[in-house]
Amino acid sequence: MLQLNSSDYQKIVAHGLRGKPLEICGLLVGHQTETDTIVSEVHEVDSKDLSEKTYNMDALKYMKIDTDVQKRGLKIVGIYHTHPATEPYPSPTDMERAHWEGTEDLLFPGYSYLIVSLRDPENPEPRSYKLEGKRRPEDVREESINIAQ
Q1: What span, in angstroms and rounded, lies between the C-alpha atoms of 117 and 120?
Q2: What is the CATH number of domain 2-148?
Q3: Which of 59, 69, 81, 133 is the most buried if burial means most Cβ atoms within 10 Å?
């Protein structure tokens, strides 16, 4: 289960609405247990793609955030991005970019992938996924989300 507080979720939605019609992205920071991913911070990260259909996270910003949060005893536990006009399900490009190029190996094993659809801006639709490995649809497992007040 992905757990995050309402304030952090609203930050993600606001980031997405500011960026619309482009996809935006960021990092989920916190810790993991055997069953849960617990988010305590969200960090906006610039997308190198200025696209309505893809994002490409700035690697240098990722590394800076990773170094900072590790110093504070936290870790990056996931990635968020928006789908401005489509359902919140990983696209073929999302799946491709979650893997090392030319391999079946995940870039970030164990991460939660939170996708927020903004096709109805008044009613954002969040869904989170764990990727199990390969690039096949059956390797995408939806995980429940708890957005706490």
Answers
A1: 8
A2: 3.40.140.10
A3: 81
